[in-house]
Amino acid sequence: SSEFLNFEGVKFSKSQGIGIWLPQALAKFSPDAIRFYLTLNGPENKDVTFRWHDFEQRVNGDLIGNLGNFWHRTLSMVHQYFQQVPDVSVAEFDSESMTLMHSIEPAFFTVGECIERGEFRQALAQILALSQSANGYITQRQPWQRIKTDIVGAAETLYVCMQVLDATRRLVAPFLPGAVAKLNTFLEVTDVGWAPGARTIVGMPILKPVALFEKIDPEVIKAEIALIEQHAGTAK
Questions:
Q1: Residue pLDDT, tens place only, 80-119
Q2: Contacts of 215 (CB under 8 A, 6+ apart)
Q3: In terms of C-beta density within 10 A (0-12 exposed, 13-18 middle, 19 or more buried), how is residue 70 classed?
Q4: CB-neighbour burial class of residue 211 (10 A; exposed 0-12, middle 13-18, buried 19+)
Q5: Which of 2-16, 125-139, 214-228 shows the highest mean pLDDT?
Q6: Are 171 and 108 in contact (CB under 8 A)?
Q7: Residue in 216, 168, 218 with CA at minimum distance from that of residue 37
Q8: Using an 8 Å Cβ cutoff, are 17 and 231 in contact?
Q9: What is the dihedral of CA 223, 69, 34, 220, to 10 degrees?
């Protein structure tokens, strides 16, 4: 059970035509985008409101700008520089790499506990935090520069990122089944077990990736808001 989900600050009403009708929504937006927003903005312990502008910002920012960006930039650089997940010596990793590596296994415990308690918002937020940390790690270490003078260091960075990518792929599967299915097909994997994949992905060939998420067009959102305003004017 949960509290109430409102729509643009008012209660949903079928009789008054206030709300979002699933067939129309699925014709314009991916199921994963809708699932993502309704999970991250779910009324678990208080009433919340579905707002079109917030939907756009959350999907384009948190889903695509954070998780999707991390997946895409990792796969792109592995493909460009190594064509496969590089084999490296974990024993020689520096402290930055080890800190991120050590955050992977606990994520399965914390996210799993949140799911068991029905705290889906917090579970998804924990996954996004792990992805955000990995994005910061890439930006700080700049493997696109390091590859020119330190191929071992670049390999270390991208190996760690592939470990985080594999973990987030597993962790987010309950929330984004469509995107994870596409990623699994791309990677030619089927295992989504609730545990880190360890070094099983070493040597995995990586092709040039394609975008897994479609950005929300602001014009589409403007049209949805115009429909609301039009309906409100008609109701008056």
A1: 999 999 999 888 999 999 999 999 999 999 999 999 999 9
A2: 59, 60, 64
A3: buried
A4: exposed
A5: 125-139
A6: yes
A7: 216
A8: yes
A9: 10
